[in-house]
């Protein structure tokens, strides 16, 4: 709807509200103008249809006139000719009002000047409501009408649109507010989401981001994560269908971490930070509500893990002894990225005695060897999240990211004789014919350990997030730039 849909009468138009001290101050002036002005006077009131008394105000409590004519301050005076605004002034200034109206001697007992107040039409509590009311909807998603006696939260549970926890009802106003977080058009298709291979638009991602509890500034991260996941390399369909307890794990790097208030410190992999918690949850809701990846359907995980509600965390780049994680994956440090990894829940690594990087890398390697099974090499990747107290051991020795990874890999060469099936009384292990030449086999492929610095400043701990099957039949970690 344009300004022509809320036409103004010719003459002088005033827009006021009772909840404005300046408007109350100039109310007698408006009455005086109505009596003495040669030009017609129309007074629109935003919050009280009887204000000001002594004239016949026009009800604008629905804010149609204020919205369509972009009233930002009250009082505002407009000069209208032929239905078109020609001039405006805001606030109260006696000299300006007299010149504007052609009426002398206005408000002689009033102060010569007072600033106005904010218009209700630009009040933050109203902007989304008015965008829905008057802006002309840009949304294309199906509207769901609830019965008057339905509880909206229970209705969302009943329709199967939640992850088992309550979600925020995605009203049109909330979705429009969420879309303000990106410059992408609402109808732009971002990806095709398995398992149902449904196209997902920016609007549909925004709807699920609202449901997850995201702020608008988180939306670009959610969009980038969906782009990174929905391709053959990451293979989200396979990740859903596996009986292993894995799901998408998101690692955020670059300036956006701090801009949106993510937590890379104490309890980094846990609860308590809105951005960390809701970004990962929004991704999972898109998979569920758009792609159809629901537990008991395509999602056949034997156990699952709590991270399948949502698992997202940033790297602590500022405190890290190493170059940022995403720099090692080919991005500039100033670029914001999200990396998606097919991972299970974290497990803790405790070593409170190591004071040399050699000793600590041996401990970390020993624990990494147990990823999924100590006798299974090369099939799985892992994220190693090193907290500051452990990272300091490497920093004090001057070990770079590359040196640290090289030492870990060197300590993860598994003797073939120890990992054959049946050895140690364990049936699991290398099948006959594999590794017959003896020697060793790496636990991880090149690049199979993703080294990230994050966590609280106290505690000689690290954490391992084990991955799903890697390679062409499994999933590859994917890093995507986050753009507005």
Description:
The chain is of the alpha+beta class and 484 residues long. It folds into two domains: 3-134, Glutaredoxin; 154-481, no CATH class. The chain has 14 helices and 20 strands. The protein has helices spanning 21-36, 64-68, 94-101, 124-134, 152-158, 172-179, 202-212, 219-229, 236-241, 256-259, 274-289, 357-368, 388-396, 401-410, and strands at 11-16, 41-45, 58-59, 73-74, 76-81, 84-90, 92-93, 113-114, 117-118, 189-193, 198-201, 247-253, 312-314, 337-350, 380-386, 413-415, 440-442, 449-453, 461-469, 478-481. The strands form six sheets. Strands 12, 13, 14, 15, 18, 19 and 20 form a seven-stranded mixed β-sheet that branches. A hairpin with a 2-residue loop joins β5 (76-81) and β6. It is elongated and about 105 Å long.
Q: Which structural class best describes the helix and strand composition?
A: alpha+beta
Approximate strand percentage: 15-25%
How much is the radius of gyration in Å? 31 Å
Number of helices: 14
Fraction of residues in helix:
25-40%
Please outline the major beta sheet. 7 strands, mixed
The overall pLDDT average reads 95
- How many domains is the backbone divided into? 2
* Poorly predicted spans: none
**Inertia-based shape:** elongated
List keywords for this structure.
single chain; 484 residues; alpha+beta; Glutaredoxin; 2 domains; 7-stranded mixed sheet; 5-stranded mixed sheet; 20 strands; 28% helix
């Amino acid at each position: 709807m344009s300004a022509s849909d809320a036409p103004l009468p010719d003459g002088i138009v005033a827009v006021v509200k009772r909840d404005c001290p300046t408007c109350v101050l100039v109310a007698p002036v408006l009455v005086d103008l109505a009596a003495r002005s040669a030009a017609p006077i129309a007074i629109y009131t935003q919050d009280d249809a009887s204000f000001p008394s002594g004239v016949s105000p026009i009800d604008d409590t629905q804010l149609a006139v204020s919205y369509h004519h972009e009233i930002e301050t009250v009082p505002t005076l407009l000069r209208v000719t032929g239905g078109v605004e020609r001039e405006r002034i805001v606030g109260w200034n006696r000299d300006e009002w007299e010149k504007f109206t052609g009426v002398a001697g206005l408000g002689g007992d009033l102060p010569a000047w007072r600033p106005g107040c904010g218009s209700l039409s630009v009040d933050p509590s109203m902007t989304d409501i008015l965008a829905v009311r008057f802006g002309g909807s840009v949304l294309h998603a199906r509207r769901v009408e609830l019965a008057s006696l339905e509880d909206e939260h229970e209705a969302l549970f009943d329709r199967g649109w939640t992850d088992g926890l309550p979600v925020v009802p995605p009203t049109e106003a909330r979705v429009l507010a969420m879309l303000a977080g990106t410059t992408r058009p609402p109808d732009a298709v971002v990806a095709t989401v398995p398992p149902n291979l449904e196209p997902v638009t920016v609007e549909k991602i925004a709807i699920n981001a609202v449901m997850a509890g995201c702020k608008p500034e988180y939306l670009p991260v959610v969009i980038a994560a969906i782009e990174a996941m929905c391709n053959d390399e990451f293979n989200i369909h396979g990740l859903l269908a596996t009986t292993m307890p894995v799901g998408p794990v998101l690692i955020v790097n670059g300036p956006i971490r701090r801009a949106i208030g993510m937590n890379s410190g104490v309890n980094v992999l846990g609860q308590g930070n809105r951005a960390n918690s809701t970004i990962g949850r929004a991704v999972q809701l898109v998979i569920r509500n758009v792609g159809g990846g629901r537990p008991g359907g395509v999602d056949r995980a034997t156990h699952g893990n709590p991270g399948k509600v949502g698992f997202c965390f940033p790297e602590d780049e500022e405190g890290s002894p190493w170059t940022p994680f995403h720099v090692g994956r080919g991005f500039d440090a100033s670029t914001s990225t999200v990396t998606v990894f097919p991972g299970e829940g974290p497990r803790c690594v405790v070593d409170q005695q190591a004071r040399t990087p050699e000793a600590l890398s041996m401990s970390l390697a020993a624990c990494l060897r147990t990823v999924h099974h100590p006798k299974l090499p090369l099939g799985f990747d892992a994220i190693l999240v090193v907290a500051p107290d452990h990272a300091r051991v490497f920093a004090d020795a001057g070990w770079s990211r590359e040196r640290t990874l090289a030492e870990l890999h060197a300590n993860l060469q598994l003797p073939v004789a120890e990992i054959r099936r049946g050895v140690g009384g364990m049936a699991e292990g290398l099948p006959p014919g594999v590794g017959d030449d003896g020697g060793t086999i790496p636990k991880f492929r090149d690049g199979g350990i993703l080294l990230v610095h994050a966590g609280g400043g106290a505690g000689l701990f690290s954490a391992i997030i084990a991955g799903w099957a890697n390679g062409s039949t499994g999933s590859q970690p994917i890093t995507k730039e986050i753009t507005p």
